[in-house]
């Protein structure tokens, strides 16, 4: 069988939901199919409940992370603009996902509807398929037909003057620490990250893990007794007395 290309691997990863991807990235470190790329509890490699998916109907997406930081204009610094963000998206491998950290004074953080229709159309033009931010955005109805995913803290209709403070630097958004060039997988459950050079291993292992799960679920469908259920879970943390239950 011919080896998959990089773009084919990314496209295949879209066939799987984000929780399944997290399972092989780090969630089950004792499972041989888990790559154990991070300590699942101590490292910030997936998003928390502070942000939510705006367009769950779009399904799973995968892309290379491009990052930026937004905040209030600084009279002492005005080197960067949104066009620098566009240049970074254009220069990256495709597709991309923009991860933009919003840094506002506390009284403004919930009010800055940062990205709207114009910014989204520009990002999509250079191969960006979605964005993740720790703050709100706006123009949700205008963006919906663009089939561009947003994961945000919420929605608000307006904003004031704003400025780009950094491009392609490490950022922290929604409980997830992201560096430029990492891969992000996201769907209505949230987002997770992993190194781009692990994409093929993630794909191989998620296929194998889901095959195991399918076999187990089929056994559970025919189970009639607690003994049958226990047998179906044999060797899994659900049945191990020295492990806490997983879900």
Describe the structure.
- The chain is an alpha/beta fold and 247 residues long.
- It contains seven helices and ten strands.
- It has helices spanning 6-13, 18-27, 82-91, 117-125, 140-143, 199-221, 226-232, and strands at 52-53, 61-71, 96-103, 128-133, 149-152, 163-167, 171-173, 176-178, 183-187, 190-194.
- Helix 1 packs parallel to helix 6 and helix 2 (18-27) packs across helix 6 (199-221).
- It is elongated.
Figure out the total of helices.
Answer: 7
Task: Indicate the structural class.
Answer: alpha/beta
Kindly state the number of beta strands.
10
The averaged pLDDT comes out at: 92
Integer-rounded radius of gyration:
20 Å
Uncertain runs: 242-247
Strand content: 15-25%
Using the alpha-carbon principal axes, give the shape: elongated
* Helix content percent band: 25-40%
Q: Could you describe the largest sheet, including whether it forms a barrel? A: 8 strands, mixed
Describe the structure using short key phrases.
single chain; 247 residues; alpha/beta; 8-stranded mixed beta sheet; 7 helices; 29% helix; 21% strand
Brief overview, please?
It contains seven helices and ten strands. It has 247 residues and is of the alpha/beta class.
Helices and strands, with pairings:
Layout: H1 6-13, H2 18-27, E1 52-53, E2 61-71, H3 82-91, E3 96-103, H4 117-125, E4 128-133, H5 140-143, E5 149-152, E6 163-167, E7 171-173, E8 176-178, E9 183-187, E10 190-194, H6 199-221, H7 226-232
Parallel strand pairs: 2-3, 3-4, 4-5
Antiparallel strand pairs: 1-5, 2-6, 2-9, 7-8, 9-10
Helix pairs in contact: 1-6, 2-6
